[in-house]
Amino acid sequence: MKELDFSHSLSSLIDFDSLLNRQVTLTGQIQNISELAWGGFIHLRLPNYVIQCVIDREKSKISFDGLRNESAVKITGTVVTSTIKNPNLWPRNVEVQVSAIDILAASETPELPVDISKKVLNCDLNTKFNYRPLTLRHPGQRAVFRIASCIYNEFGNFLNSIGFTRICSPKIVSGSAEGGANVFKLPYFDREAFLAQSPQFYKQMMVGVFGRVYEEAPVFRAEEHNTSRHLNEYISLDFEMVLENGFEDIIQVETAALNNIFAKLKETCRPEINLLGIEIPEIKKIVTVKFAEVHEIVFKETGRDFRDQNDLDPEEERLICDYSQKHWSSDFVFVTHYPASKRPFYALNDPGNPEETCSFDLLFRGIEITTGGARMHIYADYVKKMERRGMNVESFESFLQIFRYGMPPHGGLGLGLERLTAQLCGLANVKEASLFPRDMHRLEP
Q1: Where in the chain is the domain with CATH 2.40.50.140?
Q2: How far apart, in Å, do the first and last CA atoms of the chain sit?
Q3: Which H or E run includes 42?
Q4: Would you put residue 294 in left (φ > 0), alpha (ψ -120 to 50) or beta?
Q5: Could you say which DSSP state residue 431 is in?
Q6: For 346-366, what is the mean pLDDT?
Q7: What pLDDT is recorded for position 18?
Q8: What is the 8-class DSSP label of residue 168?
Q9: Phi (first) and psi of residue 64, to 5 degrees
């Protein structure tokens, strides 16, 4: 039996400024090697940094023999001040003068299939995904997913701070939450099951328990899309809440949550923001416009006529975002009151116009990143609407049980993590904001 003392140095966040002129030992991987006549540089990738390490042959007698990019090493040296301009490195005010290197695991490939030492990862999407264990190590790729991690964390942190409770709903379900045929089927013992399209039913159920709930989890859509804006598995940031003032309550909470996320990104992801050269926005005013008005604005401004469509065309999303930026000075626009024919059966119809719903999409820089709205909460209303739509009421009995025992007015939303990340980081394809994207053609890695 061996009893360990409790460690008080678990953090990988290093205050290099406090270590100036002191010896440190760092364990990481070699991002890049530059060998020169007098010695050279190693860019060492650590959990939170890529730091410059300097080898002076005269002082250290260290050989570059056996050192390769991506080898795991332990470097000992002295922290000294420096001025570093390379945006791939952080911090840029210090470097390590190396006195010893221990190779822990050498890269087995003398020449890597993709050069991840350059500022830009210069390869096509298929190559990027085929060599994912390697390409994700590129500083630009790491920056994207640091930002995604912060969004994910701060979504939950903010909702916790205003009284929401985190839930975890099942991803193997007996039926479809959204309707339609775009569900993945799988055998489940002696019957058929499905991968969850949405945590919708469970969110609504838990509003009756906690009043305010949220979940951050994958959802699955068996849609045969092969576009730059779709994934068949993505992370949905969801919340559901009791409504006291109508569906605008949801818009208020999302706006506050996004502004909190953006502020936190500026605070904690400054190296990543600088490396990617991106601008983190702030929602300074809440702009809402009705769905029907969007059609009219786009037709008047551009001559493009989408007025017979019951959803926004991707081009129309881009056009109304351009209009919002130009006339309302906002990167964000909430499009409200979508047609009832377009929204799921649980969407609450507008009492003033039953052809419209108390729902919205949030558009950001030309693409929809959120769908939300108020839900019906009266049992009899569900039965009537489902019968009008020709739905089998009995097959939804588990869901309808929620409303048999009374439910307050409520609503919520789903925010696509990958789409928000892609828009913030200026990525051309949402798949680039997914660690391991799943589409019609890809199941690996």
Answers
A1: 16-105
A2: 40
A3: strand 39-45
A4: alpha
A5: G
A6: 95
A7: 94
A8: -
A9: -85, -5
Residues in contact with 105: Cβ distance below 8 Å, sequence separation at least 6, in sequence order: 71, 72
Q: Is 237 helix (H, G, I), strand (E, B) or coil?
A: strand
Average per-residue pLDDT in the chain? Answer: 93
* CATH (residue range 139-433): 3.30.930.10
Q: pLDDT, tens digit, for every residue of 303-341? A: 999 999 989 999 999 999 999 999 999 999 999 999 999
**By the 8 A CB rule, do 427 and 226 touch?**
no
Q: Is omega for the bond preceding 271 within 30 degrees of 0, making it cis?
A: no
33 - beta bridge partners?
42
Tokens at residue 370, please?
């959120």
- How far is it, in rounded angstroms, from Cα 390 to Cα 103? 67
Q: Which of 100, 101, 81, 99 is nearest to 91 (CA)?
A: 81
Contacts 24+ apart (CB under 8 A), 388-397: 389/345, 391/179, 391/345, 395/175, 396/175
How far is residue 228's CA from residue 426's CA, in Å, rounded to a whole number? 13
Q: Is 211 left (phi over 0), alpha (psi -120 to 50) or beta?
A: left
- Would you say 74 and 115 are in contact if contact means Cβ atoms under 8 Å apart? no
Measured over all CA atoms, what is the biggest interatomic distance in the chain, rounded to whole angstroms? Answer: 85
Q: What is the pLDDT of residues 162-190, one digit of tens each?
A: 999 999 999 999 876 655 558 899 999 99
204 in Cβ contact with 239 (< 8 Å): no
> Encoding tokens for residue 222?
């068996």
Task: Say which CATH architecture domain 16-105 belongs to.
Answer: Beta Barrel (2.40)
Other beta carbons within 10 Å of 88? 22
Instruction: DSSP for 43-96, please give it.
Output: EEE-SS-EEEEEEEHHHH----TT--TT-EEEEEEEEEE-----TT-B-SSEEE
Contact 402, 205 (CB under 8 A): yes
Q: How many CA atoms lie within 13 A of 123 on its CB side?
A: 23
Domain with CATH 3.30.930.10 in the chain: 139-433
